[in-house]
Design goal:
The complex is a heterotrimer. By secondary structure, chain A is mostly helical. Chain A has 7 helices and no strands. Chain C starts with 12 loop residues before the first helix and ends in a 45-residue tail after the last helix.
């Protein structure tokens, strides 16, 4: 285990209550992981509701999922996985100190995230115009399956909405990171914010990896 | 200095994720009855594991991080399993109303 | 007292409201949590005043519903959950492990602001007319029928939940990564073990209630149908999700208290805690098993027999690690040099009252008995024994014990001992009759009871009388502790002669906690062998 050099020990990012930058980085990464555990349980509540109601209303869910556009979903899944690739490449570039690559990959991640959200806006608009938004104006072609379908769409909006909120918040954090990266703040000695953001972004991708088949393909 | 992923590894994982995504869409169009859901979930879990182990570098992380990552899913599993046990075992023992 | 310490190192409101010092943040919590304890207590007095007579003559049924809901919401979310971890935990965790601060000081400050934001929503709900659903927010009443401020209250609890999550996150990372040299896991004070276990529960459980409250808000505002039977939803699903957090939550409330008790028993017996390793493991065991028992709140629902029996069995199991702790504390007392200082009075009270509360919890874990006493005062008595007789007493004991460290001054021991006795007497008079009332069938959450049941009125009157005594016992520390903070005698670094890193620094400590980072060579509670 190498010790930090005298330069790194006085790195401007080192906070006074930590002894070394390495200790600080380990603590930060571990902290982000514990936060992601809470996010697993947070989305988990929705997944619990989904699992129960799929079991209760299997036919309704199957029928309702046909209202979703599989190809848009597939496209979005590809876009999001692509953004995970660019994010992983960005983390890598921050560790090797390749500044321009880092900035390019971060911007790509932001752009791909934006594309994803744009498609979601299109999808949501379609739901609104087809009266598939739960509430007093909800309509479903099969009256016997209406209750289950309405619950399906409650879960659809709730889960994809929560997911989208996480992406939007991520986007807001990504912008200052891009600015800092462009100014050369990150390098082999300290790249923690990029690494932490990467973990968050990958987690958001994983949520979608489960949402896509459950909502679009079943 | 922590692990630095080779670019080739990242691109390979990306390709695998894309392939698996296409696979899951194609399989869903085949009627496997009640097996459609478990198969889709198996593919999703595989994809998630690729992201977790390689993109999030859990494979190269300290044991503490690995345990932490696993614990989240373990407790989610407890919640789901235990709750579904209630619903799935209703009326099983022949007690009125339960 | 040292010339410069954390209280006077910097001045002005900005140095407090933008502080990163865990000790100052602990004090910020102390002021706000105490204020909410008072608010919750006022609602309790309203309840006890109403129930002193059988007829619902003090307030209408609707107002009464709002009173007990406010009492529950405030006490659970804004007092019990934060109290020991956010005040004593924040202050002591870095000191006890020899660190300069928690791992994430800014997130620590954020935790307090989130608490205050959540509290703001809660207060907004209260002043707008309150909520009448009970703190448990059962659906579909809360989502489809109640016309009170469910959304505001749910959002308040939601935001406060994130305060809890970030505190737990901070503790876990700090304990793993910032222990002083030589502070191995088996040398950690049991207070730290308890807070570590508590933090695990905070991380794993709180997000579930957060998303459940979110679903309630969505259902109520957008008419979604997660829990409403007329829209195809299942109210029992709500209960599963709610109790998945809220059962472990009660261990968030009591585990830190148990950590305090371990410290007090050791210090005032001048002996290491008997079976240190078992007590540490018991904390983890309680945290784990607490996630497996939530269905014991749902025995009267349509929950399946198989699930009910499983939950019941595991609920019996969770008593074992708690019992291990009680036995080990008792064994610590045996042949110790017991000093009945005021913190010790609270600790001894805890052991007795928590035992009663815990045993009655076992009664409730038995399905047959639970069906009979569910939703009666028996349940209320049970949880007040563990929450007030347990957590509150531990909180008071801890506040007294560490008060000299926090303020640098000593309080009046005669006043403290008197208050402790008043609290003990008042508490038992308030809540013991409620066991009897519940067993006799008096239901909870009703503002009136039958005039014909004379024995019910006698018991209720005793309970209300006890409540006023308890209230007195709780007001007194507010006075003499505050007085001592300004005019008490200087305490010196270790007024109790106790063992622990927090006593190795000045009272009050400097902002960076230690002049020199301590190096730990001895096990926890290394009271010299010749002392016992």
């Amino acid at each position: 285990m190498s010790h930090t050099t005298a330069d790194a020990a006085h790195h401007p990012a080192l906070q006074h209550h930590f002894d070394t930058l390495e200790q600080q980085q380990n603590a930060s990464t571990f902290g982000m992981w514990t936060f992601l555990v809470t996010e697993v349980l947070f989305f988990g509540g929705f997944f619990m509701a989904y699992i129960l109601y799929r079991w209760m209303y299997n036919a309704s869910f199957h029928e309702a999922s046909h209202e979703l556009n599989v190809w848009l979903g597939l496209f979005n899944t590809a876009v999001l996985i692509g953004s995970s690739l660019t994010m992983a490449l960005a983390v890598r570039a921050s560790k090797t100190g390749e500044r321009s690559q880092l900035v390019m990959f971060l911007i790509s991640t932001l752009v791909l995230g934006g594309v994803f959200l744009g498609v979601k806006v299109v999808e949501y608009a379609e739901k609104f115009s087809h009266h598939l938004v739960p509430g007093p104006h909800f309509q479903f072609h099969d009256a016997a399956l209406k209750n289950g379908a309405e619950i399906y769409f409650s879960l659809y909006f709730g889960m994809t909405g929560l997911h989208a909120v996480h992406m939007i918040l991520g986007g807001f954090v990504l912008v200052p990171l891009i600015v800092m990266a462009a100014r050369g703040k990150f390098g082999p000695a300290w790249y923690t914010p990029i690494e932490l953001f990467g973990l968050y972004w990958h987690f958001v991708d994983i949520v979608w990896i489960f949402l896509f088949p459950l909502l679009y393909l079943m | 200095m922590s692990h630095i992923a080779p670019k080739s590894q990242l691109y390979t994982v990306f390709a695998a994720l894309m392939v698996l995504t296409v696979v899951t869409v194609l399989i869903s169009r085949v009627d496997l009855g009640s097996f459609n859901l478990p198969v889709a979930m198996a593919v999703a879990v595989t994809k998630a594991l690729l992201v977790i182990l390689i993109f999030m570098e859990v494979k190269y992380s300290p044991r503490l991080v690995q345990v932490t990552a696993a614990s989240g899913f373990l407790f989610l599993g407890i919640m789901i399993l235990y709750t579904m046990t209630d619903y799935l075992s209703r009326n099983v023992l022949g007690v009125a109303g339960r | 007292m040292p010339a410069v310490h954390y209280l006077n190192a910097t001045h002005g409101p900005a140095s407090w409201f933008f502080t990163r010092d865990h000790k100052r943040i602990a004090l910020l919590y102390l002021y706000s949590v105490s204020a909410f304890f008072l608010v919750g207590g006022i609602f309790a007095m309203m309840i006890r005043l109403e129930l002193a007579t059988p007829r619902g003559d003090l307030m209408s049924a609707e107002t009464y519903n709002k009173a007990f809901t406010a009492h529950g919401v405030v006490m659970v979310f804004f007092f019990l959950i934060p109290s020991i971890p956010a005040i004593l935990g924040n202050f002591l965790v870095p000191l006890m492990i020899g660190a300069k601060d928690l791992a994430f000081p800014r997130i620590n400050l954020l935790s307090w602001y989130l608490y205050m934001a959540g509290a703001l929503f809660g207060v907004a709900a209260l002043v707008s007319g309150g909520v009448d659903t009970g703190w448990t927010f059962y659906t579909p009443y809360s989502t489809a029928a109640s016309n009170t401020h469910v959304v505001l209250t749910a959002m308040g609890a939601f935001i406060a939940g994130f305060s809890s999550i970030f505190t737990g996150l901070n503790f876990i990372v700090t304990i793993h990564t910032m222990r002083a040299p030589g502070m191995t896991w088996d040398r950690l004070p049991l207070f730290i073990w308890s807070h570590y276990a508590t933090s695990l529960i905070m991380m794993l459980g709180t997000p579930v209630i957060a998303v459940t409250l979110l679903m309630i808000v969505l259902e109520r505002t957008l008419r979604l149908g997660f829990f409403n039977p007329t829209l195809g939803g299942d109210p029992v699903l709500f209960q599963h999700l709610f109790w998945f957090y809220s059962h472990p939550a009660v261990y968030i409330m009591v585990l830190p208290g148990m950590g305090v008790i371990s410290e007090l028993i050791a210090a005032f017996s001048r002996k290491p805690v008997f079976g240190y390793k078992m007590v540490a493991m018991a904390s983890l065991g309680i945290a784990l098993i607490s996630f497996l028992v939530w269905g014991h709140h749902m025995f009267t629902t349509s929950q399946s027999v198989l699930a009910a029996v499983t939950f019941s069995f595991l609920s019996f199991l969770v008593a074992i690690p708690s019992a291990i702790k009680v036995f080990n504390w008792t064994a610590t007392l045996y042949r110790g040099s017991v000093l009945l200082a005021s913190p010790m009075l609270y600790a001894l009270g805890f052991i007795g009252l928590f035992t009663i509360g815990g045993i009655t919890g076992l009664f409730l874990a038995a399905i047959g008995l639970d069906i009979h006493v569910h939703d009666t005062y028996f349940v209320i008595a049970h949880f007040h024994y563990v929450m007030v007789g347990g957590t509150l007493l531990a909180y008071l004991g801890g506040m007294h014990y560490w008060w000299p460290k926090i303020t640098g001054r000593l309080y009046s021991e005669p006043w403290a001992k008197t208050s402790a006795v008043i609290v003990f007497v008042g508490f038992n008079l308030t809540f013991f009759p409620q066991f009897v009332l519940g067993y006799m069938g008096m239901p909870r959450r009703y503002h009136a009871y039958p005039v014909e049941e004379v024995s019910w009125q006698v018991l209720n009157l005793l309970s209300s009388a006890g409540a006023s005594i308890l209230a007195l016992g709780l007001v007194l520390p507010a006075i003499y502790l505050t007085y001592s903070a300004f005019w008490g005698r200087p305490a010196g670094p270790n007024p109790w002669g106790a063992y622990g890193l927090e006593w190795d620094t000045t009272s009050p400590p400097p902002t960076a906690n230690f002049e020199v980072t301590p190096i730990v060579t001895k096990p926890a509670y290394y009271y010299a062998p010749e002392e016992h």
